[in-house]
């Protein structure tokens, strides 16, 4: 029997049922429609300014908690950058992805490391943030904290299992990054945690070579105290002493010599620390090296001695010093 053949009262009931089903289907279609991108942007803006109430209201309206901008940055990441612990906690409670990534592979935890927020870092880790995740350049949170000298954060990350031996895209470890920026407190923490003293980056440099080149004598001391090779060589054969002299860092140079650095080692071009001192016109360093028995008779790959270089440069003071034989220190 067709609907038309049904009694009138039954046809009315059937029509009402069909209308109800149609209304329910329409409502389902409406609910399935994607949230306006403008609302996602509004969520991120609210997170940026710390408007937690608006963030909560938008989430209640159905705005996806992980709605991201064109760079992949979510409201959680923005709240982290804003050092807004309250909004961070709310977003995590509402299901925000603690390990979401931007197009550059940054995560909420790497943002927290960059901004040095210890409390937010702790909350993120408690909620499952991966301490080993890296940015596109290969930096993990520990490397970032090491570079910026955030000792409390580095200690926190190490306690949570961060790897002090990991290296970035250039082969640099957290220890090297800390050494390059003179972060001696973090250097001590990393050494204690088992960082490798003689790891090398793509240029063949160790943490000690990097610290000597930058003139961070206190980092040089910490590394030598831990047993770093005082005569390590980089990819071009230069030693920490040669680098310290070439960059005019007398404190680091003196410390290296006091710890047994060989003043007569030569790089692949035959250059010695003494030659570097002549080239940099640093009389104090020339005196220092000669007092540690640096040999002025050594020649470089061009067959030139330190005295020859002094003559070429017209440096009469250096030439006079090289003609002397100062007593040992």
From TrEMBL:
Region forming the signal peptide: 1-31
Keywords: ANK repeat, Repeat, Signal
Entry keyword Repeat: yes
Listed SMART domains: ANK
Pfam families attached to this UniProt entry: Ank, Ank_2
Xref: InterPro entries: Ankyrin_rpt (IPR002110), Ankyrin_rpt-contain_sf (IPR036770), Dendritic_Spine_Reg/Scaffold (IPR050889)
Entry protein name: Ankyrin repeat
UniProt organism field: Thiocapsa roseopersicina
């Amino acid at each position: 029997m067709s609907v038309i053949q049904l009694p009138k009262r039954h046809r009315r009931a059937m029509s009402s049922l069909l209308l109800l089903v149609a209304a329910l289907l329409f409502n389902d279609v409406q609910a399935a429609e994607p949230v306006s991108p403008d609302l996602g942007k509004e969520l991120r803006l609210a997170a940026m300014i710390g408007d937690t109430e608006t963030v909560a209201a938008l989430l209640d309206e159905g705005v996806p908690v992980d709605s991201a901008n064109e760079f992949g940055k979510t409201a959680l990441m923005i709240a982290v950058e804003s050092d807004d612990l309250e909004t961070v906690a709310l977003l995590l409670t509402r299901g925000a992805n603690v390990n979401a990534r931007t197009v550059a592979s940054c995560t909420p935890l790497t943002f927290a490391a960059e901004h040095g927020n210890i409390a937010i870092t702790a909350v993120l880790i408690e909620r499952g943030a991966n301490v080993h995740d890296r940015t596109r350049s290969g930096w993990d949170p520990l490397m970032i904290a090491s570079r910026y000298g955030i000792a409390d954060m580095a200690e926190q990350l190490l306690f949570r299992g961060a790897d002090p031996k990991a290296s970035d895209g250039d082969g640099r470890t957290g220890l090297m990054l800390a050494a390059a920026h003179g972060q001696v407190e973090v250097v001590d923490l990393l050494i204690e945690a088992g960082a490798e003293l003689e790891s090398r980056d793509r240029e063949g440099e160790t943490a000690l070579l990097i610290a000597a080149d930058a003139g961070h004598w206190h980092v040089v001391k910490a590394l030598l105290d831990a047993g770093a090779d005082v005569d390590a060589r980089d990819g071009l054969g230069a030693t920490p002493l040669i680098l310290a002299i070439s960059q005019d860092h007398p404190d680091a140079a003196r410390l290296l010599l006091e710890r047994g650095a060989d003043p007569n080692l030569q790089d692949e071009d035959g250059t010695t620390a003494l030659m570097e001192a002549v080239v940099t016109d640093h009389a104090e360093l020339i005196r220092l090296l000669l007092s540690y028995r640096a040999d002025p008779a050594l020649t470089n790959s061009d067959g030139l001695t330190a005295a020859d270089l002094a003559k070429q440069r017209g440096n009469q003071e250096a030439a006079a010093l090289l003609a002397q034989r100062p007593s040992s220190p």
